[in-house]
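Q: Hi! First time doing this. I have a protein sequence and I read that you can turn it into a structure. Is that right? Here it is:
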Amino acid sequence: MPAGSDDDAQLERLLFGRAGRPPQDLSEPDWPLVARELKRKGVTLTLLWQEYRASHPDGYGFIWFCERFAAFRQRTSAVFRNRHAAGAVMQTDYAGPTVPVIDPATGVIHPAQIFVAVLGASNLTFAHASFSQRLPDWIDGQVRALAFYGGVAKAIVCDNLKAGVARALWFEPTLTATFAAMAEHYDTTILPTRSRKPRDKGKVEGAVLIVERWILARLRNRTFFSLAALNTAIADAPCRQKPPRTI
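A: Yes, that's right. Below is the predicted 3D structure, encoded as structure tokens:
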């Protein structure tokens, strides 16, 4: 390229020039309105930005729009941090994956459900396999978890399983008669979580991931012919150790 000031200026523009143009209209969108509109079915950030640019042709670009909205959501989405005292709460739920158990007499494969419990303060995790999530197995899982921990927590925060919870309300739940009788027998409080509110039972959500990754993943290539054999394998998993007798 021949030397010259014009050529140097052109090269500088190509290498260091800014893409696009700076906005001339610096008025920001109504972020609370954007957040409300985004909850409506079919509404996307792209559509909302297009509507914003239709009324502000010289406004900000799409990337800026998305970044500023994300910052707005982060400022307004306050999250309460739970602090669990020792012995205050036990959280329970079922893992999503099942484990196949083969009936040796018939060859029929039964999917075993994995019940998971965790202590809020220590994160000590318990897991047990059963053939269903029906009420007898649900109650059996709770009882086995309490026996494993060697004590009773003040409250049991559980999934709002229909077998145990007739009406899931955080402070005034309606439990099935058997589940309520179990809570009365152990002198504890049952707190079913709200639907689609995973943070209500965040501890057991994390415990389920631990069970899936550290226990079920290790057992994926093993074949089980009885529920007892599966539970023995779960009990022998390296991340599951017997706790002290007090919680």
